[in-house]
Design a protein that fits this description.
Structural class: mainly alpha
Helix content: 55-70%
Radius of gyration: 18 Å
Largest sheet: none
Distance between the termini: 18 Å
Number of domains: 1
Shape: globular
């Protein structure tokens, strides 16, 4: 779904009239990164000291968690953040969740999930993965959270800094195309892997 708003390189947008809600909708990038990395370290420590998982099992589940996050990142970005807005409610949800970021892509306070929501989702994921994976959750979820932290870092520096002159430059180029050319392709931020797999690396030709 392409944004109906032209991207603005300066400024911000007030989403909530309530000053508390408005404050909670913003965060410095360091806060969620600290939350998720700390959460991941604590869970890995628990896995090592309180489960019978071997080193190779722990390592394998950790990297599976990282890979799983890249898939979730792609699908949430494509199907939730860019949902079709055929009702007023869906339009409002889409704008608050992601549309405001497309309108003000340089607003550094809205480049990451707010801390309260971050803690809530991390806790829900722990309960869900524990139910499904048992003790494997204590090494899978840290990988998932590290994957998310990597995504946050890439997303922040792509919007806050000029592209480097190395292989990572392609991430800047891809995300800039997503924001400034067509929001219906290039959904992977931290990796183009799933764009290649699902065929969204290149802009689709539009019928006249």
């Amino acid at each position: 779904m392409e944004s109906e708003f032209a991207p603005k390189n300066y400024g911000t947008k007030q989403l909530f009239k309530n000053p508390v809600l408005e404050k909670l909708s913003r965060t410095h990038i360091s806060i969620p990164l600290l939350i998720f990395v700390t959460f991941a370290i604590v869970l890995l420590y628990w896995s090592i000291t309180h489960t019978s998982l071997s080193v190779w099992q722990t390592t394998t589940m950790f990297f599976l968690g990282v890979l799983a996050f890249t898939w979730v990142e792609y699908n949430v970005h494509r199907h939730f953040f860019h949902m079709r807005t055929f009702t007023a409610l869906r339009k409002k949800i889409q704008y608050v969740a992601h549309g405001v970021h497309h309108e003000f892509p340089k607003d550094k306070d809205r480049l990451a999930m707010p801390p309260l929501l971050s803690v809530t989702i991390a806790t829900i994921l722990l309960l869900l993965f524990r139910l499904i994976l048992g003790d494997f959750a204590f090494s899978f979820l840290p990988g998932f959270l590290v994957g998310y932290s990597g995504y946050l870092s890439v997303h922040y520096i792509v919007h806050a800094y000029q592209p480097p002159k190395n292989s990572f430059r392609s991430l800047w180029i891809n995300h800039s195309k997503h924001h400034y050319k067509d929001g219906d392709f290039l959904f992977g931020v931290s990796s183009p892997l799933w764009d290649y797999i699902y065929g969204t690396m290149k802009e689709k030709k539009k019928s006249a």
